[in-house]
Amino acid sequence: MNMTLKEILDLSITYDEYIRNVSAMVREKATSGLNQSESMVNYTYLNFKRMTRLNKTIVPDAQLVDAVEASKKSMVWVAITEAWCGDAAQNLPYIAKIASAANNVDFEVVYRDETPGLIEKYLTNGARSIPKLVGFDRQTEMELFVWGPRPKPVQQMVMSYKEKLDHEKLPFDKFTEEIHRWYAKDKNATLKTELLHIFRPLD
Questions:
Q1: 5-150 is classed in which CATH architecture?
Q2: Are 110 and 8 in contact (CB under 8 A)?
Q3: Per-residue pLDDT at 203
Q4: Is the separation of the CB atoms in 84 and 31 below 8 Å?
Q5: In angstroms, rounded to a whole number, what is the distance separating the alpha carbons of residues 10 and 110?
Q6: What confidence category does residue 1 fall into, taking pLDDT thresholds of 50, 70 and 90?
Q7: What are the residues whose beta carbons fall under 8 Å from the beta carbon of 87, sequence distance 6 or more?
Q8: What's the pLDDT tens digit per position in 100-152?
Q9: 13 strand-pairing partners
Q10: DSSP, res 119
Q11: CA end-to-end span of the chain
Q12: Nearest-angstrom CA–CA distance, 45 and 40
């Protein structure tokens, strides 16, 4: 089922509201989505700590902000996510900073499991992987771009892990630690490059 932009926005919340929601989940020892297992609750706690730190330390990149504004389009960026998603915790703070700095972007968040009709349009190799960032033209409601569920090098790591069944040698928790070490070293440089390619496709 295709959803109109208005239908999506009727179900969306702002990024600041999302952060407040996740903070409340941490206090209540809960998470978003259908899976309320102890591990998902713990991931939510770790993600809130990550997002809190990144929200305070990330500085929006002027080159990327200029590229976004140069599009001359009034845009709505919609992130499809859940509070337990580690990739979302690493990427959404940077995306939110760019959207806030650009004068032509509004950034909204929707929960994947509350909008199943939306994520089904943006599957990754048949999977409901998140986060997904979808950009829309506010005037025409036309879809402008889709990014996600993670930077390409991380996606390659995930696919290799699944294809080679490396979890038999490397437990999933240890693998996610490797992923977060990659993010710590990269400092959103790859995400910046991928977003620049969206707005400066000839670069």
A1: 3-Layer(aba) Sandwich (3.40)
A2: yes
A3: 44
A4: yes
A5: 10
A6: low
A7: 130, 131, 148, 149, 150, 154, 179
A8: 999 999 999 999 999 988 999 999 999 999 999 999 999 999 999 999 999 99
A9: 109
A10: H
A11: 35
A12: 9
46-88 pLDDT tens trace:
999 999 999 999 999 999 999 999 999 999 999 999 999 999 9
Q: Is 104 exposed, middle or buried (0-12, 13-18, 19+ CB in 10 A)?
A: middle
Quote the tokens at residue 165: 């069944």
E strand or H helix that includes residue 89? helix 86-101
pLDDT for 16: 98
Own/partner long-range contacts of 4-8 (Cβ < 8 Å, ≥24 apart): 4/141, 5/76, 5/136, 5/138, 5/141, 6/141, 8/78, 8/108, 8/110, 8/115, 8/118
Residue 15 carries which side chain, given as an amino acid letter?
A: Y
